[in-house]
Write a structure and sequence with these properties.
The chain is α/β, with parallel strands linked by helices. The chain has helices spanning 14-30, 32-37, 44-51, 68-75, 89-96, 116-121, 143-156, 174-177; strands spanning 2-4, 59-62, 82-86, 104-108, 128-134, 157-166, 180-181, 198-200. The protein is built from eight helices and eight strands; from the N terminus they run E-H-H-H-E-H-E-H-E-H-E-H-E-H-E-E. It has a five-stranded parallel β-sheet with strand order 4-3-2-5-6. A three-stranded antiparallel β-sheet has the order 1-8-7.
Length: 207
């Protein structure tokens, strides 16, 4: 199962948030390579953002997945330092392939950990012109966790830096809407979730 979490309030209990995070981690551990095979091209909106860059920016890519953003930067000749963070070993294994002589660093880090920024980024002694989080924040349950991530992003940006993020709007697709599952499938009830939270199934290489 892949989780898409939207339209939040502050009622979610810590144990429910922990359960959702566990489900997401289980999905990306189990189906990381299958997921990567469906993410071989960047979305048009991400391409447009790359069009606006000079290429020298120091970029931090949260939830970097299989590293396709870094590869597209390289194809465009954008040689600014790139740091990608993700918690999925299968995705990071794909991301790290072929970067021996290129300015890209991939780090395993869990954005829901309270010290991900200090533990992973302080040794690099680097601040960033641009931080991206494409299709990431909708996987983070609960207001407090999301605000905590945003505060850390702010601290990691250089003066005048930008944070650019995107979230799924899968309800605009009849095909994706048909894949919404009942929370009972994973032992939760609607009352335990924030309004607008959805459970979406996965059908490649297993369910």
């Amino acid at each position: 199962f892949s989780l898409s979490l939207m339209h939040y309030n502050q009622s979610m209990k810590n144990e429910t948030a922990a359960r959702l995070l566990s489900l997401n981690k289980q999905f990306y551990q189990t189906f990381g390579r299958e997921f990567s095979s469906t993410r071989q091209r960047l979305q048009p909106g991400v391409q447009r953002i790359l069009d606006t860059l000079t290429g020298d920016e120091a970029l931090l890519d949260l939830g970097c997945g299989n590293g396709e953003l870094a590869r597209e930067r390289m194809r465009r000749g954008q040689r600014g330092p790139y740091t990608g963070l993700d918690f999925s070993p299968p995705l990071l294994e794909v991301a790290r392939h072929g970067w021996e002589d290129a300015p890209a660093t991939f780090i395993r880090a869990d954005l829901t950990s309270p010290d991900w920024d200090k533990r992973m980024l302080t040794p690099i002694r680097q601040y960033f012109n641009l931080v991206t989080a494409f299709a990431v924040l909708h996987h983070i349950p609960g207001v407090d966790l999301r605000i905590g991530i945003l505060q850390k992003v702010h601290e990691l940006l250089r003066p005048g830096g930008q944070f650019i993020h995107s979230e799924w709007q899968f309800l605009n697709s009849d095909k994706l809407k048909s894949r919404v599952q009942a929370w009972a499938e994973v032992g939760l009830t609607d009352e335990q979730l924030d309004p607008g939270d959805y459970l979406v199934d996965w059908r490649s290489g297993g369910r």
